[in-house]
Write a structure and sequence with these properties.
The complex is a heterodimer. By secondary structure, chain A is α+β, with helices and mostly antiparallel strands. In chain A, a hairpin with a 2-residue loop joins β9 and β10. The longest helix of chain A is centred in the first third of the chain and has 13 residues. Chain B is α+β, with helices and mostly antiparallel strands. In chain B, strands 1, 2, 3, 4, 5, 6, 7, 8 and 9 form a nine-stranded antiparallel beta sheet that branches. The chains are: A alpha+beta, B alpha+beta. Chains A and B meet through β3 and β4 of A and β14, β17, β18 and α4 of B.
């Protein structure tokens, strides 16, 4: 576990994988850390941000390895089936770039059971792993200033769904009406790390 | 209740944001210049996190339907209450029916209007901050909106000693970032010696800069990681982006350096076209600067009676008038308009 300072008020803890980052977040969230502001797991890291005049970041950094060995209750991942209309604005271009027809892109994208690695970027945006390696393409060369709410998209090894209309650089394959984030729900984000997600093709 | 007559260019409701939900992808948001917001709230006897107006580049016009105390902090503006010119950085009072007009922000970029009792807007996930990236919280201000204000605590008047001044140039203090070694030695030297200008497409998510491109020594992709305000991200173009509080919670570009916390306020006050440079400091120096900023909040906000506040107001308006006159002389008096009042 490598710990790097991120400015004067945060630590970036590099972890083995996203599961370890999520575990560390749960352990730290259960601790009462004075001045704590944010615990943000990434793909292979956890960002810990705190008020440096209240929290002692050096002492915290030294405790992290021990904390990670704390026994943890297993989490209960949930399964989600998301209905998708595969008519996204990049579908044709993606198919052309991959030298396959659109039907094959849809078949390959809707085949796997994906896993939520972490939530990031915008509220409820889940980075899903398990994408068919044959589908991997870089982000759009020029990001869109607005990707529509419910856009099912992919970039690199990830796929995901835009919970809000935000700027975005992912390749949009389809649209869903599933509500990924709702601030008024008890659990605002539909997906949690570790959850399994399957896409169902709508005709 | 406050009635919005003119909403300004881009005015939002801000408090200290929604911390603690980053793992759900929820940005912190909150005031871009949190120090100015906190000063403004203390001047009207509020807790630091009272909801207030954050104006960008141009001020608002409002009518107070009920009597209220208020204060103006942050970027420098000319303001008047029923045509009486107003000073910044001190407690002010509006009788019921008074109209407040706030002009263009002439130095700095964001001005805060705090009101005794705070603006009472519905909180979303614990905060009334308008998150304009993720569309959470109250919408930006529009003409005709009514802003309810909370019950006002009986508080004396205050002013801030030695208020900050903002300009068109700034030196921001930095610490090495977590991916510093992803960049060439040359890039690190350039960051400390070069000059960057703020681009007009900057917003509450970050300042987009233009200057000498920062070249990378490795070309692999960075796995997405959590971000903080002040992080200097470098995308493929090599032109840095300095994150402000409404940034997305995670990002995939390497961070060459981080602006220290004590300079985040200054960062939020840089308009498009401002020229900035960076200087490296030690972590101890960064923490000392932050501690000094905290001390200033209690040491330099001074209680004062009505007579002292009135005298201070006269002095600060006279000083502004004199500096405007000087500017007018320098400019041959052609382009500077001095408001009556």
């Amino acid at each position: 576990m490598n710990i790097r300072p991120m400015g004067d008020s945060a630590l970036l803890v590099e972890t083995r994988d996203s599961a370890e980052a999520q575990k560390l977040r749960r352990v730290l969230a259960a601790e009462d850390i004075p001045g704590l502001r944010q615990l943000v797991p990434g793909y292979a890291s956890l960002l810990l941000a705190a008020d440096p005049l209240v929290a002692d970041l050096d002492t915290l950094a030294r405790r992290l390895s021990a904390l990670l060995r704390t026994p943890q209750q297993a989490i209960n991942p949930r399964s989600h089936e998301i209905a998708v209309r595969y008519a996204g604005e990049d579908l044709a271009a993606v198919a052309a770039a991959l030298h396959m027809d659109a039907e094959e892109v849809v078949r390959r994208h809707s085949a796997p059971v994906y896993e939520v690695a972490f939530l990031g970027f915008s509220p409820g945006f889940a980075y899903l792993t398990g994408l068919d390696p044959k589908l991997q393409l870089p982000r759009l060369a020029t990001p869109r200033t607005r990707t529509p709410e419910g856009a099912v998209a992919m970039a690199g090894e990830f796929t995901g769904i835009y919970p809000q209309a935000t700027p975005g650089g992912w390749q949009v394959l389809g649209l869903t009406t599933a509500k990924l984030f709702d601030a008024t729900r008890a659990s605002p984000a539909l997906f949690a790390p570790g959850d399994q997600v399957r896409f169902k093709v709508l005709p | 209740m406050i009635q919005v007559l003119e909403p300004g260019l881009f005015t939002t409701i801000q408090d200290l944001g929604r911390d603690g939900l980053g793992h759900l992808g929820v940005p912190s948001a909150g005031a871009a210049d949190a120090f100015s917001l906190r000063v403004g709230n203390r001047l009207v006897g509020n807790a630091d996190g009272g909801a207030a107006l954050e104006m960008t580049a141009q001020g608002v016009s409002l009518r107070f339907d009920t009597p209220a105390s208020f204060a103006l902090t942050g970027g420098d503006v000319e303001a008047s209450l029923d045509s009486q010119p107003l000073p910044m950085y001190q407690t002010l009072h509006a009788p019921a029916g008074a109209s407040l007009r706030i002009g263009r922000i002439s130095a700095g970029f964001r001005t805060y209007l705090t009101v005794g009792g705070g603006l009472l807007l519905p909180k979303v996930l614990g905060s009334a901050s308008s998150d304009t990236f993720a569309n959470l919280g109250p919408a930006p201000l529009a003409a005709g909106m009514h802003l309810p204000i909370g019950p006002q605590a009986e508080a004396p008047g205050f002013y801030l000693r030695a208020p900050p001044r903002f300009g068109q140039t700034a030196r921001l203090r930095i610490l090495p970032g977590p991916q510093e070694e992803w960049f060439t030695e040359g890039a690190r030297a350039v960051l400390s010696s070069g000059e960057y200008s703020v681009l007009p497409n900057s917003d509450r998510t970050g300042l987009r800069l233009a200057g000498v491109a920062l070249s990378r020594s490795r070309s692999d992709e960075l796995p997405s990681m959590g971000m903080v305000a002040g992080a200097i991200q470098v995308p493929g173009s090599g032109q840095p982006i300095v994150l402000l509080p409404n940034h997305g919670t995670t990002g995939g570009y390497p961070v060459i350096a981080n602006v220290i916390s004590a300079d985040l306020s200054l960062l939020a006050q840089l308009p498009a076209g401002a020229h900035i440079g960076f200087s490296s400091v030690t972590r101890d120096a960064a923490l000392a600067a932050l501690r000094e900023q905290e001390v200033r909040l209690s040491r330099d906000i001074v209680a004062a009676d009505a007579g002292l506040l009135a005298a201070r107001a006269l002095m600060s308006l006279a000083a502004r008038h004199a500096s405007l006159k000087q500017a007018a002389v320098k400019d041959g008096g052609r382009h500077i308009r001095i408001r009556r009042g």
